[in-house]
Specification:
Elements (H helix, E strand, L loop, with lengths): L3 E5 L2 H11 L3 E5 L5 E3 L6 E2 L5 E6 L4 H12 L3 E4 L5 H16 L7 E4 L7 H9 L6 H28 L10 H17 L4 E11 L2 E10 L2 E2 L8 H16 L10 E14 L7 H12 L3 H13 L1 E2 L5 E2 L14 H15 L34 H4 L5 H16 L5 E11 L7 E11 L30 E13 L8 H11 L7 H10 L3 E4 L2 E4 L1 H13 L6 H15 L5 H18 L5 H4 L3 E5 L6 E7 L2 E6 L9 E4 L11 H6 L5 E5 L5 E7 L2 E6 L2 E4 L10 H18 E5 L4 E6 L2 E5 L4 E3 L11 H10 L9 H21 L4 H14 L1 E2 L31
Parallel strand pairs: 1-2, 1-6, 5-31, 6-7
Antiparallel strand pairs: 3-5, 4-5, 8-9, 8-16, 9-10, 9-15, 11-14, 11-16, 12-13, 14-15, 17-18, 19-20, 20-21, 21-22, 23-24, 24-25, 25-26, 27-28, 28-29, 29-30
């Protein structure tokens, strides 16, 4: 029996911490959250002060049972989950669940937090426990309630008005808007022409270039020369001036050095990593997406077994918006710099950085190595490739942040083509004098830039003539703004104050999983359905995808976490307006939101051709509902965009179905596309097309496909009892019997090929009927479990009345409750939204 039971989120973290605490401590993982909102309407009840109704997460129920059993053997419960809102909520949920079950009546409860998983940090935390922070719990619950209210009310409206299976999230929707607006900017962009003129020069066998900066005494701007005529006129003028110089030894003339400026520039290092900057740099330098970055960082934080066999946390907590470093860490980093790079690369005093985030918790630290003396090369053999690359990035950035600046010698020179300095070219150069922190780390955005490389100019003296090799005009066009890469999107989300850094990975993953965006190389492009959803939200729920509104809401949630604002009035204010908006949009027609686009008229029939979104995706429509004949419909092909498809491309879609003659057995043959993809139909049977195009497949190839399908089917069938309509055949899970309406597995004790028709009938009769699609089994199972739970609760009720009363009071303060409410939400939706299926198996989506 251990004296203390310690709870953390993950088994990896549990193994590491248990080694640090010794035999008096048993460490178990909760596997993330143990409770979540019930996945149905009423989980958050606006009519009951936003009471939130929770239930145990089914996949974690077994682990909760294990925690209960171990707690019975222990004297105290130590909650050591992560030091952020999500970690605080995990601790609180477990505490409330155990309290409601009467498991804590004689137990001492402690809450401990640590920013790094090292022996000293863990032991120090255990020696200095605190209470659960209701402010952090309230902030997390308020966020969860907001996300639920949006998801459970807005997503079903999207299902009804646009397409089934869609979702709208409180934070993902503004992120989608960013991507769609950038796409619209690119589509609307009109390139502008401009010309540059450069001089190619040479001194002492050192070639260099200079760009025209002044013409006829006027500064040359980007569009000063905006066509070839103007550029040619300037070229002729400059060549004439250069050839008229005092030194005419060059065929192309000379330029005179009119002015030389020399200076030194110092560049300071960037601060150590926050969650956001780590995600951005890992994307730029390592090609990691946000999810991969956070997953790898989590493993470094939780601990890796090194040479001595002991698991050690290698970095501090990776969900932070602080750039602070602890004094102990600063001293060790400065010592490492002196030993590896020399004392002259260590400044006189430690560098301090100011955190930009308004809600930064200064008690937290930046992401740093738990020991800077543990260099990446010394532990490489114990790490995976991803772990080593990310650890090296963190180590380098942290150490560089405490080094001296890089020093550059910069030179800029004006070179005149004429005697009066009316036509000037500007040449610039820079050389690195002292590397400083650049010896260790350079930010990713500069990796392919020239500004950190030496760009040397030859020694230039005012008044001297420099040989001109040629003057060269070049045509350019302005470019549209670039699409968002993951690094750029993360940076923009942070700048707009949308979400929090710990949620960026989940936001991006949701947009991709919902197929609202797709990747064009490393950049995000909105899909047709993504554009539809964005337009629906921006047209009809403008307030809720507004960047300023989203940012202000995040700020208010932060205020809740600091105890500066109450969470229930915040929710009430949000819900009043949002519920009215939901109600007002119930009568919208699909035509009003489906972005129908008219392409023109079919030249053969004279009927209109449009494209719009439907229940199963975008499609083309030939004709209108007012015609005598029903309109024809054809789904858009993969890769076709509703905004870009042409009339001819749309009309081509109506070439299906294609009659391809007959099979060798005289069956009619037809190619088409259905809900499950392209196929060839022969009589009333179907053969899927894997690589063939239904628009171009030949009759000969179609017959081959059918023959291959028949051969496969023949091998699949073991026995056929035609008179009884029964077959015995192979299936993906073994041999089975079917009569077309009912299936039954062949018992392992019987050979499928030896079965008689009577045996088949008997096996089918004993088999359960096919379950209807939908809620059948799950709903029944859930109902049975709920009944059992209710009965169990009833038998315990008398024994735990006093304890439940205390629990109810605590839950009322923080909005938590496990009781079923008799009141009904004012929301009109009766269906659960996909948005509620957010993972809660850990704090990978946790908040700061």
């Amino acid at each position: 029996m251990s004296e203390n039971l310690v709870i953390v989120e993950s088994p990896a973290k549990a193994r590491t911490i248990e080694k640090y605490l010794g035999q008096d401590y048993e460490v178990l993982a909760s596997y993330g959250h143990v409770r979540d909102l019930i996945p149905k309407e009423g989980a958050v009840d606006p009519d009951d002060e936003f009471a939130m109704h929770y239930d145990v997460i089914e996949r974690n129920a077994k682990q909760v049972g294990k925690i209960e059993r171990e707690l019975k053997k222990s004297k105290s419960l130590v909650l050591a989950t992560d030091p952020d809102r999500e970690g605080e909520a995990i601790a609180w949920h477990l505490l409330e669940l155990l309290r409601s079950r009467g498991e804590l009546e004689t137990k001492q409860v402690k809450r401990v937090v640590f920013n790094e998983i090292t022996k000293s940090a863990v032991q120090n935390a255990v020696e200095n426990p605190r209470e659960i922070s209701n402010d952090l719990v309230n902030a997390q619950q308020a966020r969860r309630a907001l996300d639920y209210l949006v998801g459970f009310n807005l997503s079903p409206l999207l299902w009804k008005k646009v397409q089934r299976g869609l979702s709208a999230g409180r934070v993902q929707s503004p992120a989608l808007r960013l991507i769609c607006e950038r796409d619209a900017e690119i589509a609307a962009f009109v390139p502008e022409e401009y010309w540059r003129i450069e001089a190619h020069l040479n001194k002492d066998a050192t070639p260099f270039t200079a760009r025209l900066s002044q013409l006829d005494g006027e500064k040359v701007e980007q569009f000063t020369l905006n066509d070839q005529t103007g550029a040619n006129a300037a070229y002729e003028k400059l060549m004439a001036a250069a050839s008229d110089g005092e030194d005419s030894t060059s065929d192309n003339g000379t330029l005179r050095v009119a002015k030389v400026d020399k200076s030194q520039r110092r560049r300071n290092p960037a601060p150590p990593f926050t969650t956001s900057t780590l995600q951005q740099e890992a994307a730029r330098k390592l090609g990691f997406n946000a999810r991969r970055t956070m997953r790898t960082a989590q493993s470094l934080y939780e601990g890796v077994a090194l040479g001595d066999g002991e698991a050690t946390g290698l970095i501090t907590y990776m969900r932070t918006d602080s750039v602070n470093l602890a004094n102990e860490a600063l001293n060790e980093i400065r010592e490492t710099i002196g030993q590896r790079y020399g004392a002259d690369n260590c400044p006189d005093k430690p560098r301090t950085f100011k955190t930009q985030s308004k809600n930064a918790q200064e008690a937290h630290e930046a992401i740093r190595p738990t020991g800077s003396a543990r260099t990446p090369d010394t532990i490489k053999s114990y790490l995976s490739s991803d772990q080593h690359r990310l650890y090296e990035l963190i180590w380098q950035r942290t150490v560089a942040s405490q080094m001296v600046p890089a020093v550059f010698d910069t030179v800029s020179a004006d070179l005149a083509a004429d005697r009066d300095n009316q036509h000037l070219f500007r040449a610039s150069g820079r050389t690195l004098r002292e590397a400083g922190f650049l010896a260790v780390y350079k930010e990713g955005r500069d990796d392919n830039a020239d500004d950190d490389s030496d760009k040397r100019l030859p020694a230039l003296v005012e008044g001297e003539a420099i040989t001109l090799d040629k003057i060269e005009p070049s045509q350019h066009f302005t470019e549209p703004p670039p699409r968002f890469t993951e690094a750029a999107l993360v940076k923009t989300l942070e700048e707009y104050d949308i979400g929090r850094p710990s949620t960026y990975a989940a936001i991006i993953s949701t947009l991709q999983d919902r197929e609202y965006v797709e990747m064009d190389g490393k950049a995000f492009m909105p899909t047709p359905i993504g554009k539809i959803v964005n337009k629906f939200l921006t047209d009809h729920f403008t307030h809720y995808v507004d960047y300023d509104f989203t940012a202000r809401l995040e700020d208010r949630l932060d205020a809740v976490s600091r105890g500066e604002e109450a969470w229930q009035p915040l929710l009430a204010e949000f819900w009043e307006r949002f519920s009215q908006q939901i109600e007002a949009k119930q009568d919208l027609t699909r035509e009003e939101v489906a972005q129908a686009r008219e392409l023109g008229t079919d030249p053969e029939t004279g009927k209109p051709v449009i494209v719009r979104i439907g229940k199963y995706g975008p499609f083309a429509q030939l004709g209108s509902k007012d015609d005598e004949e029903k309109p024809r419909f054809a789904s858009l092909r993969k890769g076709q965009d509703m905004d870009e498809i042409t009339l001819d491309e749309a009309l081509y879609l109506f070439n299906l179905p294609r009659d391809l003659g007959e099979t060798a057995e005289g069956e009619s043959l037809q190619a088409n596309i259905g809900r499950f993809g392209p196929y060839v139909k022969y009589d009333n049977k179907f053969a899927s097309l894997k690589s063939d195009d239904p628009y171009t497949i030949t009759p000969e190839r179609a017959r081959e496909v059918v023959a291959e399908k028949k051969e496969a089917d023949a091998k699949k069938v073991i026995q056929t009892f035609a008179e009884a309509g029964i077959k015995v055949q192979h299936g993906p899970y073994g041999p089975y019997i079917t009569d077309g309406s009912k299936n039954a597995s062949v018992p392992k004790s019987q050979e499928p090929g030896d079965l008689t028709v009577d045996e088949c009938r008997d096996i089918l009769a004993k088999a359960p009927d096919k379950k209807k699609r939908g809620r059948g089994k799950n709903a029944s199972s859930a109902k049975s479990k709920q009944t059992a739970n209710n009965q169990k609760s009833s038998t315990k009720s008398k024994a735990s009345t006093t304890n439940k009363s205390k629990s109810s009071q605590a839950q009322k303060k923080t909005g938590g409750t496990t009781k079923s409410s008799s009141k009904k939400s004012t929301t009109s939706n009766k269906k659960s939204a996909d948005t509620n299926k957010t993972s809660s198996s850990g704090s990978s989506g946790s908040e700061q």
